[in-house]
Amino acid sequence: MCTVCGCAEGNTRVEGQAHEHEHEHDHEHHHHDHPHSHSDAPAATVVHHHYHFKHKGDVHIHYHVSGAHAHDHGHHHDHDHSHTHEHGHEHSHGERFAPEQQGEDLHYGQGPAHAHAPGMSQHKMVQIEQDILGKNNHIAEHNRAHFQADQQLVLNLVSSPGSGKTTLLTETVRRLAGQKPVAVIEGDQQTANDADRIRATGVPAIQINTGKGCHLDAAMVDTAYHRLGLDQGGVLFIENVGNLVCPASFDLGEAHKVAILSVTEGEDKPLKYPDMFAAADLVLINKTDLLPHLDFDLPRCIESARQVNPNIEVICLSATTGEGMERWLTWIEQKGAALCA
Fold first, then answer.
1. What is the pLDDT of residues 167-215, one digit of tens each?
2. Which of 7, 130, 136, 211 could cross-link 11 (Cys pair, CB 3.0–4.6 Å)?
3. How far, CA to CA in Å, does 174 sit from each of 63, 156, 179, 233, 318?
4. Using CA atoms, how far apart are residues 71 and 37, in angstroms rounded to an integer?
């Protein structure tokens, strides 16, 4: 996850106006000095979140990870639409973790961290992951309390790129609009293209650009949700960044994760990315109109999903032809009713 891919070093931009606080600055250039001294800090890793609110509501989130061997950090941020960071770090390389070998295959996911990063011990990776997820989960619980108080059914849509997630979501909100309040939070590394597609249906949407980040986190969703102003008793769809790895670990406060898998992908996808399908309550198998043209074993795909998660529900549909859409909308209606019961 993020202790390996390094996505936490990215910058995040959320559409809308900053409601928390703003720095006094001119609109072209502002300057931040953040001295951090950890001389008395415990050996456990510390993750720092710095939120810089700029003009036009942009939110830039920086994560700085420090540990037992990195005590005094001078962080100097010079922002004029670019970022320069001067860090004094002592690097702890830790023990090397050799992969488990089977024949010529290499397996790096066998240690306590279930991942590998050059120069970082398994113990250190576990510490970093626990700190990042602990902070995220705290905010996720805050989000969940807000959603429940507002009687919002919040669905976290996850998939690999190209699954047809945005097309499916656009058709879904088009059918729901007018029946109940509906809104969308869109997650992508760059562009507002998907949010623009949603807004074209008349449904409010807000775009989160994660920069180098490969997933949404609870803090991003919290910021976006408070800017949407969704009426009570509605449905909030969160379209996560196209990725079947990191989003599995990050609770956003949602009621359900919904994994979308298209028939143009392999039927063994749930076995290749088990964490995501284990975390999901529903898998939507999309683009079924293409089945006559593909060598895709649908029963095997369903079997693979239930091998990972015996309780997962499965709906086969096509956002293009509308086949199976009523089953999907009925599922949403049932989950919304259960939330308000």
1. 999 999 999 999 999 999 999 999 999 999 999 999 999 999 999 889 9
2. 211
3. 37, 18, 10, 18, 15
4. 6
137 forms bridges with which residues in the sheet?
A: none
Residue ranges with strand state E in the chain:
13-14, 30-37, 46-53, 59-66, 72-79, 100-102, 105-107, 153-159, 182-188, 205-209, 235-239, 256-262, 282-286, 313-316
Q: Which of 234, 233, 160 lies closest to 204 in space, CA to CA?
A: 234
Question: Which of 315, 272, 265 shows the shortest CA–CA distance to 291?
Answer: 265
> How many angstroms separate the Cα of 17 from the Cα of each of 22, 57, 61, 224, 226?
10, 4, 15, 10, 10
Task: For Cα atoms 234, 284, 288, give the angle at the middle one, nearest 5 degrees.
Answer: 125
Give 98's pLDDT tier (boundaries 50, 70, 90). low
Three-state SS at 236: strand
Structure tokens given for 287: 């683009």
* Helices (H), ranges, 193-297: 193-199, 218-228, 269-272, 274-279
Tokens 């306590």: give the residue. Answer: 112
- Which parts of 133-191 are beta strand (E)? 153-159, 182-188
Question: Can you tell me the distance from the alpha carbon of 193 to that of 1, in angstroms, rounded to the nearest whole number?
Answer: 26
Residue 326, number of CB atoms within 10 A of its CB: 12
- Cα separation of 195 and 56, whole Å? 17
- What count of residues does the chain have? 341
Q: Write out pLDDT tens, residues 284-311.
A: 999 999 999 999 999 999 999 999 999 9
Q: Are 114 and 125 in contact (CB under 8 A)?
A: no
First to last CA, the chain: 36
Tell which residue, 245, 248, 242, 236, has the closest CA to residue 280: 248
Q: For residues 65 and 340, what is the distance between their CA atoms, to the nearest angstrom? A: 40
